[in-house]
Amino acid sequence: MLRFEDVWKRFGRDWVLKGVGLEVERGEVVALLGPNGSGKTTLLRLAAGLLRPTRGRVERRGEALLLPNPPAFHRHLTAREHLAYDLALFQGSGGMEEAVGLLEAFGLPPDKPLLAFSSGMRKRLALLRLLLLRPGVWLLDEPETALDQEGRRLLLELLEEGRRRAAVVLATHDLDFARKVADRTLLLGQG
Ligand SMILES: Nc1ncnc2c1ncn2[C@@H]1O[C@H](COP(=O)(O)OP(=O)(O)OP(=O)(O)O)[C@@H](O)[C@H]1O
Questions:
Q1: How far apart are CA 139 and CA 129, in angstroms?
Q2: pTM assigned to the model
Q3: Max Cα distance, the chain (Å)
Q4: Whose CA is nearest to atom 18 of ligand 1?
Q5: Total H helices, total E strands in the chain
Q6: Cα(57)–Cα(71) distance, rounded to whole angstroms?
Q7: pLDDT band at residue 72, thresholds of 50, 70 and 90?
Q8: Residue span of the structural domain in which 143 resides
Q9: Which of 17, 91, 100, 126 has the fewest Cβ atoms within 10 angstroms?
Q10: What is the mean pLDDT of residues 53-80?
């Protein structure tokens, strides 16, 4: 579903990624590890097609959804309005009835503007979009942050679902979390 072939990325004079190779198929969860500034977010943005490699190739089959950290939303919309907007943009996704059911299951108020959501609530909404919009490639930037215990439980369940439906790449600083959820890890920032 996702393939990086000898990918190099430079910003100005600084090389952030140097010859990254990566292949992720449906059914696999790969964790990106590495210190601050080692290029994890850059790799996710390349995978999403938001950046181009300076050298090398990035290939992807199917739609990708990037969950940035913190999640980015149109803050004046309510959760229900935002999901209606998302559904209009994404092909092959679920319907509004499913959206409302998921909001309930994730404990989120449908009619409150998102600017009144806490950071954990925004994170939950971002995770919910993965189930609703059904992308083939899930790109998650520090998905475990801002979540309470119940939110973390939802995330672990969601990643099991992700493993069934998609190719999943996630960036994290939490080694225990990476060990628990990932089939493989890729360590960035090593020379
Ligand atoms: N658009 C950009 N323009 C210039 N430099 C950038 C840009 N995006 C990222 N960088 C630089 O690339 C390097 C890698 O950044 P990136 O955000 O990918 O790291 P990261 O591993 O995700 O870090 P963190 O763990 O802090 O989230 C940093 O030095 C950063 O300043």
A1: 12
A2: 0.93
A3: 50
A4: 39
A5: 6, 8
A6: 27
A7: confident
A8: 2-187
A9: 91
A10: 93
Q: How far is the CA of 15 from the centre of ligand 1 (A)?
A: 10
pLDDT tens for each residue of 81-138 = 999 999 988 876 778 999 999 999 999 999 999 999 999 999 999 999 999 999 999 9
| DSSP alpha helix (H) spans, 31-174 | 40-48, 79-89, 96-105, 119-133, 149-165
Total domains in the fold of the chain: 1
ipTM here: 0.97
Nearest to 132 by CA among 47, 60, 67: 67
The distance of Cα 177 from the centroid of its chain, to the nearest Å, equals 15
Q: Domain containing 106 — which CATH number? A: 3.40.50.300
Q: What's at 136, amino acid-wise?
A: G
Cα 36 to ligand 1 centre (Å): 8
Return the structure tokens found at 19.
């010859």
Instruction: Give the count of beta carbons closer than 10 Å to the beta carbon of residue 54.
Output: 14
1 ligand 1 Cβ < 6 A: no
Whole-Å CA distances, 190 to 21, 35, 42, 83, 186? 14, 10, 15, 40, 10
Q: At what angle do helices 79-89 and 119-133 cross, to 10 degrees?
A: 30
Q: How confident is the model at residue 191 (pLDDT cuts 50, 70, 90)?
A: low
